[in-house]
Specification:
about 0% strand, globular, mainly alpha
Length: about 140
């Protein structure tokens, strides 16, 4: 099977969230960089769509997403992820376990947005659909 595993998808979503600020600057550079950064632009749009979703449904989660992954301001290099989560839990008056649940929900929503933008294909279904279309076209040409 040619599919990608869910843990790898989550890791990719987390990597793209952490690189969002750096990737945003690439979006506005010259046309040559934009041509090679189509995937980067797609992930930035997927993250923006996820932020808009959280802004509309639960602004506190959107604020948490912005602060945890450093979408607007840089993350201090001296802090670990656990330290950031604990500080955010104290600041937002939410338990630490809820913060971890929110983090998983954020990653899931970003993955859903990436699927909608065509950045991720689950289980290799998109490739299989292409192969079926090619097979149908070949069968039609033989008729």
């Amino acid at each position: 099977m040619k599919g990608i595993t869910l843990p790898r998808l989550r890791a990719e979503a987390k990597r793209q969230l952490l690189n969002y600020r750096r990737n945003q600057s690439r979006v506005y550079r010259g046309a040559a960089l934009r041509a090679e950064g189509g995937v980067v632009t797609g992930w930035a749009r997927a993250i923006d769509a996820a932020r808009a979703y959280f802004r509309a449904t639960d602004p506190l989660k959107e604020r948490y997403m912005t602060r945890l992954f450093g979408l607007e301001t840089p993350i201090p290099r001296s802090q670990t992820a656990r330290t950031r989560i604990i500080r955010l839990s104290l600041e937002l008056c939410v338990s630490e376990s809820t913060m971890y649940k929110w983090q998983e929900e954020i990653l899931n929503i970003v993955l859903y947005a990436a699927v909608e933008y065509g950045l991720v294909s689950l289980f290799g279904l998109r490739d299989g659909a292409k192969m079926e279309l090619i097979g149908e076209e070949a069968a039609e040409s033989l008729d």
